[in-house]
Amino acid sequence: MSALRLPQWALPALGAVLVAMAALSDWRLAAILAAWFGAWGVNALMAGTGRSGAVPFVVPFIFGATLLGLWEMVVRLYEISPIILPAPSAIWAEMRASTGILWADFQQTILKGALSGYAIGCGAAFLMALAVDRSGFLQRGLLPVGNFIAALPIVGTAPIFVMWFGFGWQSKAAVVVAMVFFPMLVNCVQGLKASDAMQRDLMRTYSASYTQTLLKLRLPTALPFIFNGLKICTTLALIGAIVAEFFGSPTVGMGFRIKIEMGRLAMDMVWAEIAVAALAGSGFYGLVVLIERRLTFWHPSQRRG
Fold first, then answer.
1. Using CA atoms, how far apart are residues 167 and 248, in angstroms rounded to an integer?
2. How far apart are CA 22 and CA 30, in angstroms?
3. Is residue 169 a contact partner of residue 113, using CB atoms and an 8 Å limit?
4. Cα angle at 218 between 214 and 222, to 5 degrees?
5. CA distance 272 to 24
6. Cα–Cα distance between 102 and 276 in angstroms, integer?
7. What is the DSSP secondary-structure string of 171-213?
8. pLDDT tier for residue 2 given thresholds of 50, 70 and 90
């Protein structure tokens, strides 16, 4: 059964009807809808030209710029208080005016707390997955306990780690380790089981040792699962480091700054910290995806059709 396809004139016609209906009641809503459908039409035309050249980069850029533009329009046209929702232009102005503070917070939270905890947690999970793969006892005993620990709320574990490791970045790294360890472990264990029994039998007929089978068959097969775990843990690491700073931190850090500026109702600074965290998380995720494409170019998920 073929998919339902709308004619090309349907989107502009629908947009024109909605804009006309909104103009009868609220000209501001009509302006917002006109901007939205106009950008939507341009994006739809560009997306239909294919995936070659700069189209894969231009389409998401236009979409993101449209959302920011609509955000700016809503705030200005409806005169929303900056305490409720600051405009993107005000957030950008605050980011430019507070570059030093944002950079210090970025170093404390991302470079020290999140990245160190991410590296330790993911590295330890990978080594533990190798041990679990060799031990049936660990498979039956560790994984259920790990799922239980992974379900513990961060708001309960973060204060404990702060009391154990102090107010420095070490306690935030410990929280990140606890958050990323078991998701990474589960993905690594599943990846090591991904090779077919026929492939393993073939390696045995070649008299391959466990190490040779691991390096030449099982690890390459497990790479997509390992990178799935790494991508999931990029966001968990940032969330864990920022939330942990709400429960104890020196006078620097993204979580600390958000908590303090919220009390002062300085929402421009709060949103500036959120924007920096979002950009850092997107860049971190994109870096892992780029490495994945380089190392798993042979996998069907990386083939572009």
1. 5
2. 5
3. yes
4. 130
5. 37
6. 8
7. HHHHHHHHHHHHHHHHHHHHHHT-S-HHHHHHHHHTT--HHHH
8. very low
Helix (H, G, I), strand (E, B) or coil at 303: coil
Confidence of residue 229 (pLDDT cuts 50, 70, 90): very high
With beta carbons less than 8 A apart as the criterion, state whether 86 and 148 touch. no
Distances (CA, A) of 33 to 44, 70, 116, 229: 16, 9, 45, 39
The whole-model pTM stands at 0.81
CA angle 7, 12, 16 (to 5 degrees): 135
Candidates 185, 192, 194, 188; CA nearest to 144 is 185
Tokens of 69: 């533009």
Q: How many residues does the chain have?
A: 305
Q: Please, what sign has the CA dihedral across residues 126, 289, 178, 145? A: negative
